[in-house]
Amino acid sequence: xxxxxxxxxxxxxxxxxxxxxxxxxxxxxxxxxxxxxxxxxxxxxxxxxxxxxxxxxxxxxxxxxxxxxxxxxxxxxxxxxxxxxxxxxxxxxxxxxxxxxxxxxxxxxxxxxxxxxxxxxxxxxxxxxxxxxxxxxxxxxxxxxxxxxxxxxxxxxxxxxxxxxxxxxxxxxxxxxxxxxxxxxxxxxxxxxxxxxxxxxxxxxxxxxxxxxxxxxxxxxxxxxxxxxxxxxxxxxxxxxxxxxxxxxxxxxxxxxxxxxxxxxxxxxxxxxxxxxxxxxxxxxxxxxxxxxxxxxxxxxxxxxxxxxxxxxxxxxxxxxxxxxxxxxxxxxxxxxxxxxxxxxxxxxxxxxxxxxxxxxxxxxxxxxxxxxxxxxxxxxxxxxxxxxxxxxxxxxxxxxxxxxxxxxxxxxxxxxxxxxxxxxxxxxxxxxxxxxxxxxxxxxxxxxxxxxxxxxxxxxxxxxxxxxxxxxxxxxxxxxxxxxxxxxxxxxxxxxxxxxxxxxxxxxxxxxxxxxxxxxxxxxxxxxxxxxxxxxxxxxxxxxxxxxxxxxxxxxxxxxxxxxxxxxxxxxxxxx
Length: 577
What we know:
Blueprint: H1 12-27, H2 36-54, H3 65-73, H4 87-91, H5 95-109, H6 126-145, H7 163-179, E1 185-191, H8 202-211, H9 216-226, E2 229-231, E3 234-235, E4 238-239, E5 243-245, H10 256-263, E6 276-280, E7 283-290, H11 293-313, E8 324-328, E9 342-344, E10 347-349, E11 351-352, E12 354-357, E13 360-363, H12 369-392, H13 398-413, H14 417-420, H15 425-443, H16 451-458, H17 463-480, H18 484-499, H19 504-509, H20 516-519, H21 522-528, H22 534-550, H23 557-576
Parallel strand pairs: 8-11
Antiparallel strand pairs: 1-7, 1-8, 2-5, 3-4, 6-7, 9-10, 12-13
Helix pairs in contact: 2-8, 3-6, 8-9, 12-13, 12-15, 13-15, 15-16, 17-18, 22-23
InterPro entries: DNA/RNA_pol_sf (IPR043502), RT_dom (IPR000477)
Protein name: Reverse transcriptase domain-containing protein
Domain Reverse transcriptase: 92-362
């Protein structure tokens, strides 16, 4: 192994040091000042540092035992850290431990008692992460109370997920292609920032802390958190020399994602209002539409230039090779003489037929077929694992096998359900086939076992019904968090998915349970009473009768009368038949 004209390394120690040299010089090196603005920021940060050292009035509100206890309950069962302290130990806390940790954390943040040996800012320290969670919660409350974080930033924020921006893009594209009076072309560009978290300019971040007027005690802690950090590389149980991290936020720290969001909070300030944008941590996307391709190029190039200027000012580097452009055309099969194309860092970006964005493969027709192919490939090994585990056990526990299916497979095939519910029913038929296979393997049933039987034994709903239930919950969550535009988008998808649901007659034929409102509908009654659906309809009417009996106290007399009328009609049909 060799790097930067260093003599070929043969021992593990030499190899580890080469990695350390590479990380220090290529990844975590302090970026050079190339603009007059950079010098201004450096001077301002020196003033901020001096002010922090000479400031005694911090207005620090001590960390309380209740705060420590609450965050300890939220800890994950992660691996043991270098201090040999496991999160499981911390979760089995005593009141004495809570008191000691509260005293320790207050001594770390309090300006009067801050010895460097007490700074638990190690990336792998469980105690350090616990303190970082407490600081993160306080910082988040401060930012939310002042509405500082950008609304379109969905990364690492409570009650927001990656689906937020995926749904926004999908709704926007379809509204331009199908629902506008004049159908419009849409183009979206998905940026890639080189080593985004590791390239954060420390002085620039401190400058923004001060610019946002954060509490002084938080700024002082964050300066201590960022600066004078060291790291080492472990290679085959051999440690390299220590090296200093001159840039970046520590990956794995609870604070790092929030610090990156603060750092990029003004990245879209120069974007024109007619340009839509979405942010999920370091994943940045811009999209817009026009009825003419030439206008589309100009409309998209302007915000790209603004974003390039911002990245240059704040020492982040775009990667044009990994930046992708997708053209959602009103004529997807047509080859245009002058196709959509833009420039990033003076490199021309040509449109792709599909791109991966936030775990979803988005094709230029929004059919999601490419995404489903990737899902099928991804879960093939997991299906084989289910089959192996079922056959390896003498008496496999069905509950455990079903839980394995839910965690290993269903989480993968259901990801992206809000936009997948807008797709063709053939997509859901293929997803349902995956669930059928997985349940048969988990339960050790032969391939000819009926679908109704395996779902009844496993006590699992059909996959599209499960997705609709998830969408209902997501819509209610969006409403409770005052995301009304996102809530309306989810409601529109929910309404459309219900109308596109499998035929209720087919569901009746498959003996699926139908709602009382459907069963008592006059048009459905006349259709269902024909041919082979009589016995099933009668049994489900009896089920409706049970529901009505259970809800007599809810003043449902009009439904009871309707039910009795339908039952009388059904008996008359039986006599005539």
